[in-house]
Design goal:
heterodimer, A: alpha+beta, 4-stranded antiparallel beta sheet, 3 helices, 4 strands, B: mainly alpha, 9 helices, elongated, transferase (chain A), UBQ-conjugating_enzyme/RWD (chain A), UBC (chain A), nucleotide-binding (chain A), Ubiquitin-conjugating enzyme E2 2 (chain A)
Chain lengths: 147, 201
């Protein structure tokens, strides 16, 4: 709810456990100029358990499932990763905040992590055919703005 | 005499058990086996395909061959293979491993077509509502930038955290709309500039 920066705002007061946020594509990336609505859902036992974040529009990114669900370490439940990919410090803990999640998502947009891709097709394209990936993302950004 | 009386029932027992064992080993096993062999192969193939499909749903990055190889090693246990994938212990199959080909049954073909039908709407789904239609901004797209600035000043007034819930909500919504429209304008200008650049070349 609290508008925290010019890059992102979150709002919707109807339900405190469900927020909607707009994320601005970071500059210097193919997402630049784009606006991406996302939905943050908080579990009943927040802040012990992390919220989930889902992009509401189309977004082509290695760490976003085709359904729009965001897969980043800060949104993963606290404790050690059973796969030993992530440190406990990277994962969710009650001292994290929504602002940090949004910042993490911004940096995720700028720097995809292809170690554990959520969208395999996007990860492959990002790795092997970067120009095509960037073009596809740019096209998606324009479509989102109705252009 | 007493010895004989005791040993006779036990002798009969031994003969009966021996007869059953012989019958089980030599007579009973071949006949059901000949009936079960083809049915077993078919049902094994079916369970195998079901297992492969389930694992592939969980881990779409794995190919069929790897899954089949691991399933063979774990004795067809889905949970064991899942465990191995999750802990990163899955191995690439050796080149000599020939996976059984997927059965071409009508049911399979039908599921394949339903899958392609499911995928088809998924593609237009991704191109569905853009932000303008999503938030009903069509009427505001062509507003002049001046009126947008006007709106901005109203927004600035409303920015002070209002105590009224509805006011807060509408202020935030206005901010949202403005953010989208500003981004769209910027992108429009960028596209126009690109076109002009392409035209002059």
């Amino acid at each position: 709810m609290a508008p925290n920066s010019r890059k992102t705002i979150a709002y919707t007061e109807d339900d405190l456990l469900q927020w909607e946020a707009l994320i601005q594509g970071p500059e210097g990336t193919p997402f630049e100029g784009g606006i991406f609505p996302a939905e943050l859902k908080f579990p009943k036992d927040y802040p012990l358990a992390p919220p989930t974040m889902k992009f509401l529009g189309e977004i082509f990114h290695p760490n976003v499932y085709p359904s729009g669900l965001v897969c980043i370490s800060i949104l993963h439940p606290p404790g050690d990763d059973p796969n030993h990919y992530e440190h406990a410090s990277e994962r969710w803990s009650p001292i994290q905040s929504v602002e940090k999640i949004l910042i993490s998502v911004m940096s995720m947009l700028a720097e995809p992590n292809d170690e554990s891709p959520a969208n395999v097709e996007a990860a492959k394209m990002w790795r092997d055919r970067r120009a095509e990936y960037e073009q596809k993302v740019r096209d998606g950004v324009r479509r989102m703005l109705g252009l | 005499m007493a010895d004989e009386q005791i040993s006779l029932p036990s002798l009969i027992l031994i003969v009966v058990i021996g007869g059953l064992v012989v019958r089980y080993l030599f007579f009973s096993s071949p006949s059901p086996a000949s009936q079960q062999q083809p049915r077993d192969a078919a049902s094994a193939a079916r369970t195998r395909e079901a297992a492969v499909e389930r694992i592939q749903q969980m881990f779409p990055q794995l190919d069929r061959r790897t899954i089949l190889w691991d399933l063979q090693r774990t004795g067809g246990s889905i949970s064991a293979t899942t465990e191995r994938v999750l802990s990163g212990r899955i191995e690439t199959p050796p080149v000599t491993f020939q996976p059984p080909s997927p059965p071409r049954t009508p049911a399979n073909a039908a599921s394949a077509t339903t899958r392609s039908q499911q995928q088809k709407p998924a593609i237009p789904k991704s191109t569905e509502p853009d932000l303008i239609t999503r938030y009903n901004l069509q009427s505001r797209i062509n507003d002049s930038p001046a009126s947008a600035e006007n709106g901005g000043s109203v927004d600035a007034k409303g920015k002070a955290w209002s105590s009224n819930r509805d006011e807060r909500q509408s202020a935030l919504q206005r901010r949202r709309d403005e953010m989208i429209i500003a981004a769209r304008r910027k992108m429009e200008a960028k596209i126009a500039a690109e076109r002009a650049g392409a035209g002059s070349q």
